[in-house]
Write a sequence for this structure.
């Protein structure tokens, strides 16, 4: 049975159980394993390759600027020593509104905030970017 690929244009971002506005892009859904080479004594024909440390990438969220400065404030709180971790969920939907997939990011906190880029001749929406470190991804 062959299934069709899911469209990537319908998704929502939830932080601590609250849907957070309209996001234009989400990236960083990545898990990577280091590989350790292990040479067995007396066996020169090959090297064992074993899984090592698992690393997750930072989650990058981009959304149109709104009157809310919540993301900047969260980042500023971390910089001033008020360390708050939150649970972040990315939910992907089909065209009919049925949820297809859900990724949960455990104990996320901001490591970078980027404000909008201004161009006097531009007509694009102003976009802010929030980069989050986290302790791992789970599918839900």
């Amino acid at each position: 049975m062959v299934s069709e690929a899911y469209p990537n244009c319908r998704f929502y971002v939830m932080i601590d159980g609250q849907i957070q506005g309209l996001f234009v892009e989400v990236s960083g859904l990545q898990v990577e394993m280091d590989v350790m080479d292990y040479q067995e004594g007396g066996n020169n024909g090959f090297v064992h390759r074993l899984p090592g440390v698992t690393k997750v990438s930072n989650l990058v969220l981009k959304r149109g600027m709104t009157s809310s400065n919540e993301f900047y404030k969260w980042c500023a709180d971390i910089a001033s020593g008020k360390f708050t971790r939150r649970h972040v969920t990315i939910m992907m939907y089909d065209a009919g509104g049925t949820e297809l997939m859900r990724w949960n990011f455990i104990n996320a906190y901001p490591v970078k905030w980027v404000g909008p880029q201004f161009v006097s001749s531009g007509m694009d929406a102003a976009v802010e970017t929030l980069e989050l470190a986290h302790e791992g991804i789970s599918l839900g």
DSSP finds one helix and ten strands in the chain. Residues 34 and 52 are 5 Å apart (CA to CA). The radius of gyration is 20 Å.
